[in-house]
Amino acid sequence: MERKQASEFPQELLDIFDLYVHGDIDRRAFFDRAGKFAVGGVTVAGLFEALRPNYAWAQQVAKDDKRIQTEYATVQSPQGNGSIRGYLAKPAAAGKYPAVLVVHENRGLNPYIEDVARRLATSNFLAFAPDGLTSVGGYPGNDEQGGQLFGKVDREKMTLDFIAAINWLKARPESTGRFGIVGFCFGGGISNTLAVRMPDLGAAVPFYGGAPAAEDVPKVKHWASSRVVMTWGRPTDGEQIQLAGEAVEYYRYAIDLVQRKAQAPLDDYLSDLVRLRDGDDGKATLHEIGAIAFNLLFAGHETTSSAAANLFKAVLTRRDLWDAICRGTQPLAPVVEEGLRFDPPVQAWRRQTKEAVELDGVQVPAGARLLLMFAAANRDPAQFPEPDDFVPGRRNAMQHVAFGTGAHFCLGAPLARLEVEAMLESVARHLPGLTLVADQDYPYTPNTSFRALRKLMVAW
Length: 460
What we know:
alpha+beta, 17 helices, 44% helix, single chain, 460 residues, 11 strands, 13% strand, Rossmann fold
């Protein structure tokens, strides 16, 4: 039986299932809301089973893979829930390896997380995936019951269990002492927490936080554009001085933002970092949290705003497509995906080869500096037929490289997609008569990497 891909389901159905998965609605509510998609002989129960993860199909490394060794281990956690059990995976060859803690979603140590640990072991990491549900009997065998048990565990004690686990892992004789953490959904929050509490943590997976105040958006946009020119453009000596001054203003804004969060915390990422710091500079200084804000405000803003502007430019030049979006007959997710392929916000990036390689008959030596043209790859006719046509719903649309690929894949990709789709839906609903101003120029910020419109004039 061939398993469908997510892109083959209606986005609204995926959104309903996402609410169920994260505990916002129960199973009965999912069945009620999903009923309208049960057509053509397909039942709601069949849709539910098709959407549920099949861990056997997702497995990439077999449990008995000869390249690795695995076992279950219990770690003592006297400050947490007493102990935490987990899945240890390591290379079969004797030696010392960097350690990685793998933290699950809000359902416990399921087979997928164990497989992630095995994947890391095949890449020469010492991986440990602890089960945050240990204190309530452990992962029960299915995600639905795991989600129910998750709410019964003291969150702070569970966090202390994960800290005990990573301390145990990095102290093992197979460990080099260097360690990091990768977390999924809830586990991403644990990654952020440990990044603040453990200053010797080598690497963690961050998620984006709260947005700046609405009145600050024009300033942030200007500063972000200036940073693009300063880093990826060719400014004159005089322009460099001006851009450096604006970068300082940008950083001071980030520091001030963190200090305001310290005085009046809100329900957002920066406030959480300030709370976890708890006044202790040994965990993180306010300037260090400010540096995180400085980088996230740029990375999470410049790319997404450019992706949205490029998409609106492409869609509004195709009136039939815009009208279909406004009528609700054109699903939005395929439009967003095609927009990312057609005109990505980051069109090129710098890389350096680690070893000599031959690419399409060209010898590239080790240490060569390359400029990878993502936008050109996204218009490769061998990969995308009629690449210069805007075609929502391409079967291979997800194969574009707008977010990079492999180890360098953008962690904010799901959030960026969600934000651009929300913008598209809101504008189409409120401004169906929107048009591009005729005969306008399309000025872009001059640089090597970002496809950033300086302005896009519209009328309604």
